[in-house]
Structures are given as C-alpha cells and as structure tokens.
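Annex B. Sample input.
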Amino acid sequence: MGNSGLKQHLENAKKTGVLKVSSNLNDFPPGFLQLESNLRTLDLSDNKFVTLPNEISRFIHLKHLNLHKNKLNKIPDCIGALTKLETFNLSHNNLTYLPRTITNLINLKNVYLCDNHFKEFPVVFCGLKHLDLLDLSRNEIRSVPSEISGLHVSELNLNQNQISEISLQVINCPRLRTLRLEENCLQLNAVHSSCLGYIT
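Annex B, continued. Sample output.
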C-alpha cells in the first residue's frame, strides 16, 4: 500500500472507527497513533508482526482486534490495557504462551487461537466471565488442567491437539455446552462419563 492509500485509510478510520491494513507491516504505520481515541475495530491480519508495539496499549477503546496470520511469538504485557476488547483473533501465529495481563480483559467474548504452538492450556482465560467462545484448535496442547473449572465459555474448541487427559473439573465449567475434541490422543476410558454430554 502506497503512502496515499494509507493516508486515505487513516482518514476513513477517523470517521468510521474501523481500520484494516494488510500490507506486510511489521510495525504500526506512520500516523497510526492519531487514531487512538477513534478506533473500535483494528484489523492487522496478513502482516509480519513478530510482537506488538507497546503503543497498542493506547487504543483503549478497541472492541475488536484481528491479528490473524502474522508471525507473532509474543504478546506484550501492555495488552492488558485494552479492557473494552470483546473479540481477539490471534489465529495462525507462532504463540506458545500469553501474558498474565490477559486476565484484565474482562469484556472478552470471543478468542481465536487456532494454529499456534501452545503446549499447555492457557489458564489466563479462566475467570473471564463474559468469555463465550475459546478456539484452541490445531495447537499442541497435551492435557486439560483442573483450572478449567473457572472457564465460563459455552463453547471450547480443542480439535486437533495432542490431548491425552482431561480433568474431571471440566464438568464444573458453569456455562459449557460444547466441547470439541476431535483428532486428539484420547482413549475413551480416559474421559469420565460425566464429560461425555459436552463432547462433540
């Protein structure tokens, strides 16, 4: 995207509160910070971000953040400043963990983390009471820990991981209706009968 095209994008974003920039970026474009009080939706999918600049913390009005298909291997602690965030798409990256400050994102509803490299279930999402969907499909997760009882989602997608054991505490998830576990390493006798009603 040329400078004139980017400038037009930024001008439009001031009016609409929506910005989509997919042009192999690895840093915020010039003039981007002038939108900090306007943006509600930021789509930076299909770029080359390895991490996010700390300036992301200034966009405190963001509700939707799409970072699908970048090269992210780290999310900075300052992400916890985005307390109005509702949708967070981090799919198709190189993430193995998330910062503890994710627990500050109390308005999260939908989180997409498919196609990353998580080996452990990210318990930072446990306790977020508005979270409805958590997609962790196509990772390398090996077990579902007892902390899952604090997860408030109605749908949890764990398809295509390496899960061989699930804590019985999954039955204590207060809102869970759908648990997706296709293509894992589970033996049927490793799943307590109490859990079977959730699994699709």
